[in-house]
What we know:
By secondary structure, the chain is mostly helical.
Amino acid sequence: MRLSLRTWEVRLGIVLIAFAAAVYTAKYLLLGDPVNTYQYIFNALGFLPINVLLVTLILNQLLSIRAKRERLEKLNMVIGTFFSEVGTGLLTFLSDHDPRLPEVQQDLVVTDAWTPEIFSAVRDRLQHHPCSVAVDAADLQELCRYLKERRGFHLRLLENPVLLEHESFTDLLRAVFHLTEELERREDFSGLPESDIAHLSGDIARVYSLLVGQWLGYMEYLQKNYPYLFSLAMRSNPFDETASPVVG
């Protein structure tokens, strides 16, 4: 692509070079010491690589870190909205139909005493949990209705450019959207063959596994940054049968 003299970058460069030339010319005319002027020019040129190092590497890195933190903050706001509108209810439904939930249920009762090491250990244990879900025709119908009602919300989330920075959460949204499409394409769940139910169960298990991982990461984020939001999330824990939003 050819540079155009009309771009503001080129115009700014010309103005800065002209200004520097004018300063050195004025110095030469007023002080009448060309040797000193030449020395100053060479000294400035010698320091130029250090300026470039400071600006491009150090300062730019600091600005990149700040921008990344701001993007992460916006991303977690989106993730929080997802769990408020869809995720927590969906996680409650899926965990209620997990026949092996008692094996890991106590590990998922998050408290304010949890440390990063506990969160990491729970993630490791969850890798061995199959996240299987036992559903029948009525369950599939209920799940289809729940997801269809939130289809527009899913689409708006997928259009959010902030999510491009979070691959695992984007994978979750794609999995949820795919499951919604699969369920919508079936008119009657009561007559589905076992092979098709097994196929749908696989799609549901994929969503369940990704959802649990994202929920755990979001709980850790809230505990670290927003204690008051974490308090409500604990009192709404879909894995805690004694959880209640009412503060006792």
